[in-house]
Amino acid sequence: MENLQQPNQSFRLKFYGEGGTLFGIVLINTLLTFVTLGIYYPWARAKLLKYFYSETEFNGNRFEFHGTGKEMFKGFIKVILILIAIYGIAMCGAFTKSPGLILLIYPIIFAIIPFAIHGAMRYRLSRTSWRGIHFGYHGDLKEFLGLFFKNLLLTIVTLGIYGPWMQINLHKYVEGHSRIGNATVQFNASGGDFFVLHLKGYLLTVVTLGIYLPWYITSIHRFYIEHTSIEQNGTVSVFKTHITGGGFFLLSIVNALIVIFTLGIGYSWVRIRVMRFYIDNLELQGGFNPDLLIQTEGEYTNATGDDMLSMFEIDLA
User: What pLDDT, in 10s, does the model give residues 6-26?
Assistant: First the structure.
């Protein structure tokens, strides 16, 4: 049998999106969402995801997002009902002058977050493919809930100090249960290192009156990327990023000027510039072999979790 194992090499990512195209999509999505009183929102979100995925290339092949507006609409309705219930509790608390009822909405929201993350990962990865091979998420909900609330409790008890450890532990679980076909994703990082990174970034940002912020942001991004790897048949390939704080600083300045001088119209071009900055500087180094990928994943069409994250503006990254 022919040996398909490849020597160490570099696989680059490339983003081909254009500001004008994105502006057209956003304009139509906004108009249709407004005309339909928000009902079109799931279809608008699906169109955006399809566009961003289809414009992202890895090793000469584009990604695909197979989710549909119809799937997202079902989840959208569930999220709306949840938000109505939360709003109802808040209003009852206000009318009855009951602080307890108003404060109740916070533990409810915290309780929703892990369900949203778990559901969103299952849906988003299941509906994503590359070269026809689907991604997948194999986390266990009960296990993830236990991990989330244990870490949340420690974060509350330590007045937020444990926060970096919580972020790393959750990220490690989610990434560690993600895969593309028969290749598994791994995330190996320590909460202590992440805490030091945040402490250093915060102090330098304060001392420099905010000038260090772009370097702080890029250091966080680099930390996540460069602690992520893919294991395939015993071979581990690692991700690398070439972004710099200086590059992000210049990007931010130009983006701010675009938004200001176009009165916000240029936001689509800004979004494309940010995507290109992150994706074009990303690569996978190692013995990864696309020809050895095997389809192992089934379909999962419940988009409720993904819609929840969108509504609460929580990033999957």
Answer: 557 899 999 999 999 999 999
Give, for 130, the enclosing helix (H) or strand (E): strand 128-130
Up-side HSE of residue 243: CA atoms within 13 Å toward CB?
29
Amino acid at residue number 171: H
Q: How far is CA 63 from the centre of its chain?
A: 16
The beta strands (E) that lie in 61-104 are given as: 61-65
CA distance 185 to 237: 10
For residue 252, give every residue at least 6 positions away whose Cβ sits within 8 Å of its Cβ, in sequence order, or none: 214
Q: Report domain extents, the chain.
A: 67-139+298-317
pLDDT 10s digits, 161-220 = 999 999 999 999 999 999 998 899 999 999 999 999 999 999 999 999 999 999 999 999
Model confidence, pTM: 0.85
Judge contact between 186 and 228, C-beta under 8 A.
Answer: yes
